[in-house]
From TrEMBL:
Protein's cellular compartments: Nucleus
Lineage: Eukaryota, Viridiplantae, Streptophyta, Embryophyta, Tracheophyta
Top-rank taxon, per record: Eukaryota
Species for this entry: Brassica campestris
Function: Putative 5'->3' double-stranded DNA exonuclease which may also contain a cryptic 3'->5' double-stranded DNA exonuclease activity. May be involved in DNA mismatch repair (MMR). 5'->3' double-stranded DNA exonuclease which may also possess a cryptic 3'->5' double-stranded DNA exonuclease activity. Functions in DNA mismatch repair.
Keywords for this protein: DNA damage, DNA excision, DNA repair, DNA-binding, Excision nuclease, Exonuclease, Hydrolase, Magnesium, Metal-binding, Nuclease, Nucleus
Protein name per its UniProtKB record: Exonuclease 1
Keyword Thylakoid appears in the UniProt entry: no
Length: 576
DNA sequence: ACGCGGTTTAAAT
DNA sequence: TAAACCGCGT
């Protein structure tokens, strides 16, 4: 995806490099691309959700590349995708079908006994799930690899980090496959990095400063460049028919302003230009400039770039297209990988701890230890990482107790459920059937949509863990205040009532009862750390020792409807 | 020249 | 899932 044909267009500015160039600096990683590539190595296992560690090969793939970077004394900073942007919903639907079709085809081949053919189809059916992302996070934590879950687009977060000085937690370059990074204004981007660390790099400043290079960007600034990208067609806004990257570049370099290009565009191909194309374009450009990102030091959301006066004058609701604001506690919980950024369910830390970290990681570590000239700088940087992470571990502190009122409403609207991670590590026990992991919530709608695993047997999930005695029932859904529950909606219930043993149990029986009626709000304290606003389901008994979490599994159609309802300000996809 | 749709191929081990 | 490649239409 990304910007259509941008990389091909920018080819003259893209040079082969080796990541060694970034030794002793911090480099950002767009986790999605590695997760996706890694998923190929175990596509069947992921699709079928089989037991065993072969399924975790994508983790090995990822960590091998992390080790590679560390081997070259690079400090990797992994950035994962968070919630979906309000606008870019439209792409998901048809691919969903394709994926489902491929999955079914694979199952057919499997029944015929043709495993090889089945794998081919499985590879076309895999997608990156939030469960995979979460498992990765657990490993990153245990390996002391710095990571951050972006509130929305990882690209925006990476661009933000790239704008910071290294000493302030910034990064010197980004490894990704996504050309969006350039539209976001990322200084240095490395594409197509292979397993040896070779890749293709584009330095944005070189583009603007180049004198005799073919596509000339002499009079471009970052804003014009971004506008060119949007004109060429991006995930937020399809291009005007007949306009691609080349003409977009032509328009921008000729007219030197977005407004002029727009008026020329309208007079030139009037009918082809949608009514609200101008406003959509301006807003899309704004997203690339001012998207909401997580501010690591302030532990709250902020904008990629300080808002222009123009945007600051707008009422806050009008800024939702940059990504809805989140309260600091929610933003922090997301960033630290404690809650699923889409469903806002607490991650349950499924059993990655049992994973035996093996060969590649260890072998690199050994190499480092044995290599005398590497020893000093490495231990130094490792120590730095350790310090950093332990500082980050500091939680969502008491300041969140006095949450600003404006947020509590939002916490309701978006139905944020912030749960402290269960404090008993041992409560996470590998289940005999890992398919219980709620892995049908993809981190990203744009490039991936999950197969609805519940169609293949997942019905209910029971989990037990200890709370501090408070009992709440929480319905967790994207939008609890939207009543529609279509037929395709199913419910999984996480029943936390069994306090004595902390085993995750499967319960195969269906649970169709709906307890959606909600009549009161409460601030609930969980483990004395996080104060959250949530809704108490009628009938929940205070002090009862049960803790129920209902999750809603929806078809993507449902999601899309909801998202469309939400994006009242911006409907980029009215034409689709 | 450019856009664009359709087809092919690599990716992972 | 792209990206790369190709041929057609403007």
């Amino acid at each position: 995806m990304g910007i259509k044909d941008l990389l091909r267009f920018m080819k003259p500015y893209i040079l082969p490099i080796h990541i060694q160039k970034y030794a002793r600096t911090r480099v950002g990683i767009d986790a999605y691309s590695w997760l996706h590539k890694g998923a190929y190595s175990c596509s069947m296992e992921l699709c079928l959700d089989t037991d065993g560690k072969k399924k975790l090969r994508y983790i090995d793939y990822f960590m091998h590349r992390i080790s590679l970077l560390q081997h070259y004394e690079i400090i990797p900073v992994v950035v994962l995708d968070g919630g979906h942007m309000p606008c870019k919903a439209a792409t998901g639907d048809e691919r969903q079908r394709q994926r489902k079709a491929n999955f079914d085809a694979a199952m057919e081949k499997l029944k015929e006994g043709n495993v090889g053919a089945a794998v081919e189809f499985f590879q076309r059916a895999v997608s990156v799930t939030s469960s995979m992302a979460h498992q990765l996070i657990q490993v990153l934590k245990s390996e002391n690899v710095e990571f951050i879950v972006a509130p929305y687009e990882a690209d925006a977060q990476l661009a933000y980090l790239s704008s910071l000085e290294l000493e302030q937690g910034g990064i010197a370059a980004v490894i990704t496959e996504d050309s969006d990074l350039l539209a976001y204004g990322c200084k240095a981007v490395i594409f197509k990095m292979d397993r040896y660390g070779k890749g293709e790099e584009l330095i944005l400043d070189n583009v603007f400063q180049a004198v005799d290079q073919k596509p000339s960007f002499q009079n471009f600034d970052q804003e014009l460049f971004t506008a060119m990208c949007v004109l060429a067609g991006c995930d937020f806004l399809p291009s005007v028919p007949g306009v691609g990257i080349s003409r977009a570049h032509g328009f921008i370099s000729k007219y030197q302003s977005v407004e002029r290009v727009l008026s020329v565009l309208k007079s030139k191909k009037g009918k082809l230009v949608p009514e609200d194309y101008s406003s959509s374009l301006m807003e899309a450009v704004s997203v690339f400039q001012y998207a909401r990102v997580y501010d690591f030091h302030g532990k709250k959301l902020k904008h990629l770039k300080p808002l222009s006066q123009n945007l600051m004058d707008l009422p806050v609701e009008q800024l939702e297209f940059l990504g809805p604001d989140l309260s600091p506690s929610v933003a922090a919980a997301i960033a630290e990988g404690k809650v699923d950024p889409i469903t806002m369910e607490a991650f349950n830390r499924f059993s990655v701890s049992s994973r035996q970290l093996k060969t590649p990681v260890q072998s690199f570590k050994e190499q480092e230890k044995r290599s005398s000239f590497l020893l000093l700088p490495l231990s130094e940087s490792e120590e730095r990482i350790n310090l950093k992470r332990s500082a980050d571990e500091a939680i969502i502190g008491p300041e969140s107790v006095l949450e600003e009122p404006k947020y509590s409403k939002q916490d309701l609207d978006l139905h944020k459920l912030v749960l402290q991670q269960p404090n008993k590590d041992h409560m996470i026990i590998p289940t005999s059937n890992p398919s219980l992991a709620p892995d049908n919530n993809p981190f990203k709608i744009r490039k991936t949509d999950e197969i609805n695993m519940e169609e293949y047997g997942l019905q209910e999930l029971k989990v037990s863990f200890e709370t501090n005695g408070e009992a709440v029932d929480v319905t967790s859904s994207l939008n609890s205040n939207e009543p529609d529950c279509s037929e395709s909606q199913k419910e999984g219930t996480i029943d936390l009532s069994k306090l004595d043993d902390s085993l995750i149990k499967q319960d195969s029986e269906k649970n169709r009862e709906k307890e959606s009626s909600v009549d009161s709000e409460d601030v609930v304290e969980i483990q004395g750390h996080v104060n959250i606003t949530t809704k108490r389901v009628r009938g929940a008994k205070p002090r009862a020792e049960s803790f129920k979490v209902k999750t809603s599994f929806r078809s993507s159609e449902d999601k899309k409807v909801k998202i469309n309802k939400k994006s009242s300000i911006l409907d980029f996809f009215h034409r689709l």
